[in-house]
């Protein structure tokens, strides 16, 4: 059940208080209307509504004391001034809160993930939180999820929707992976060419989907190297070491790479954290920024 005072606060139009405060300061409906950039009837109606809501006369209307506050009006004016002071101080208080947030946000990213928007997001975020620094750690999806589950990591970016209830997951985007060779593409059949994989592609892991995708595409050559991340794998492909799966948004603009005519594999990318992961103020502010953008 709503308490009477809560009901009063919820039903009160707070703009009426500002109008009343200006009337007291200007000692005139006309001047108050000019200052508020509204019509005189609007100001008169606002005063009448406030008096009806409070069930008290707040402003004297006639005689020598015209437009002077009544005793009840004096009390209300003092409270209005206090409220106005709190509201006008909010921007400075919020700026101070931003300035006080500091620390290090550590992002654990699975090696195959390419998130080209991340640098811009961090740069924009640091406009508001200049004291926050960032660290990046690469690993396999399994390693990162294990660290998160054990609270040895706070924020992870992986391609796996983990079933553990202690992990909170939010999808960021879909990443298309295609297979590439050193340009120009070979004229002969590439299906027996050496394969370049990622660490953590073993059966049962989130990246096992890449191995299965190669098998379905008929790429049956031996795996000759396992790279820790997509940048290292791209360097191997450019060197002509074999065929490798790369994020299309990473490889598309690289003229030294040739995409094989195979259907791409779509891997969802998630931001993952522990539901009781002990987020620092820096972690919390960055999460809120990501959710807003």
Automatic annotation (TrEMBL):
InterPro entries: LysR_HTH_N (IPR000847), LysR_subst-bd (IPR005119), WH-like_DNA-bd_sf (IPR036388), WH_DNA-bd_sf (IPR036390). Residues 12-70 form the HTH lysR-type domain. CDD domains: PBP2_LTTR_substrate (cd05466). It comes from the Bacteria. Transmembrane segments: none annotated. One of its GO terms (molecular function) is DNA-binding transcription factor activity. The keyword tRNA-binding does not apply. Keywords: DNA-binding, Transcription, Transcription regulation. Belongs to the LysR transcriptional regulatory family. This is HTH lysR-type domain-containing protein. It comes from Achromobacter anxifer.
């Amino acid at each position: 059940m709503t308490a009477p005072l809560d009901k009063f606060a919820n039903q009160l139009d707070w703009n009426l208080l500002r109008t009343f405060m200006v009337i007291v300061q200007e000692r005139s409906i006309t001047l108050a209307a000019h200052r508020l950039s509204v019509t005189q009837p609007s100001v008169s109606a606002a005063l009448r509504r406030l008096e009806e809501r409070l069930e008290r006369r707040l402003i004297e209307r006639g005689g020598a004391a015209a437009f002077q506050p009544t005793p009840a009006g004096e009390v209300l004016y003092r409270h209005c001034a206090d409220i106005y002071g709190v509201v006008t101080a909010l921007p400075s208080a919020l700026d101070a809160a931003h300035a006080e947030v500091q620390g290090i946000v550590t992002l654990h990213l699975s090696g195959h993930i390419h998130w080209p928007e991340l640098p811009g997001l961090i740069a924009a975020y640091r406009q508001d939180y200049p004291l926050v620094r960032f660290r990046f750690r690469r690993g396999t999806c399994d390693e990162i999820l294990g660290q998160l589950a054990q609270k040895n990591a706070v924020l992870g970016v992986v391609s796996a929707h983990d079933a553990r209830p202690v992990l909170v997951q939010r999808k960021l985007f879909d990443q298309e992976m295609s297979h590439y060779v050193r340009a120009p593409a070979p004229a002969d059949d590439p299906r027996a060419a050496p394969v370049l994989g990622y660490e953590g592609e073993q059966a049962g892991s989130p990246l096992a989907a890449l191995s299965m995708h190669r098998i379905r595409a008929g790429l049956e050559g031996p795996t000759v190297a396992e790279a820790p991340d997509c940048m290292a794998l791209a360097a191997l492909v450019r060197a002509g070491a074999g065929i490798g799966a790369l994020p299309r948004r990473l490889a598309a603009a690289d003229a030294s790479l040739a995409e094989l005519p195979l259907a791409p594999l779509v891997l969802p990318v998630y931001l993952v954290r522990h539901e009781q992961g002990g987020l620092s103020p820096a972690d919390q502010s960055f999460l809120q920024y990501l959710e807003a953008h």
